[in-house]
Amino acid sequence: MLKKLVTYYTCSFFKIKYVLGIVAIFVLNSMLVCTSYADLIPNGYTNQIVFMFYMPLNIQFDILRWLLIFIPVLLLLSSCIVRELTNHPTYLIQRMKSYRHCFHSIFIAIGISLIGYVGIGYMVTAIFVYFINNKIEGHNEIPLSLFHNSDGWQVLLSHFILFILTGLLLLIIHTIFLFIINNAVFAMFLVIISLISSVAVGYVFPTILKFLPLTYFLLGLSELQGISIAWFNTIIALCIVLSYSVLYGLFIKLREKIVG
What are the transmembrane regions (predicted)? Predict the structure, then answer.
């Protein structure tokens, strides 16, 4: 039954119109990078894909670009969480006879959907880079050590995982805010404020970047401290476990209020 419920939720979250929106967002991001940072694009196909997500090169512009990538994904999946928790759960809970199964199945499906959407985004970026590769003049002497001292495919895979983990952490944080204040729009506003505040604090005080997991996706900031992406992934995974435990505790405490 749990498997069927996960399948049901995943199909509910994964729709063609959402996929088209994700494609448009990642194409737009790649176009912005090629327009704004053409003189910094490195040599090598995988390096060029990673560079499309390398931030911040310009702190003001790239914070907006960072939000452009993350916020639509968060809005899409958080709206799915809100819909399933508040509008549709009664019949399913009666059949499952378990709040726990329904709750966990929603977030398993969210994780699967997030992997799918981010995977599509990276695939679209890779295709974009491939087709404009002959128009990109790669540079060997760019002042970004990540593209000189690392294996491109390894960095790409690590960054892909980092994107998924960061997105999942933000979705859990949004749902925690939602449970506490019972307002999805204001909860998303708090998430955006948390993102921007973390970047601002990390940019001003780079020595504390390793304690700000919401900034880990910004590879430009992480290079300042020489901390590996593997370390970031580990810390974010721990934050996810902790925050999910808090979220589940809130759900059990407030479930009658949440699902009616």
Answer: 18-38, 63-82, 103-132, 152-173, 185-209, 229-251
Taking the C-alpha atoms of residue 218 and residue 55, their distance in angstroms, rounded to an integer, is 5
- The single residue listed with the structure tokens 């809100």 is 82
- Output the six-digit token pair for 89: 């759960």
**Interatomic CA distance for residues 2 and 102, integer angstroms:** 8
Residue 227 gets which letter from DSSP?
A: -
Spell out the domain ranges in the chain: 2-259
Cα 249-255-260 angle, rounded to 5 deg: 170
b/e per residue, 229-251, with b = 16+ CB within 10 A?
Answer: beebbebbeebbeebbeebbebb
pTM exceeds cut of 0.85: yes
Residue 152 contacts by C-beta under 8 Å, 6 or more apart in sequence?
44, 45, 46, 47, 49, 50
Angle between helices 16-36 and 59-86 (to 10 degrees): 170
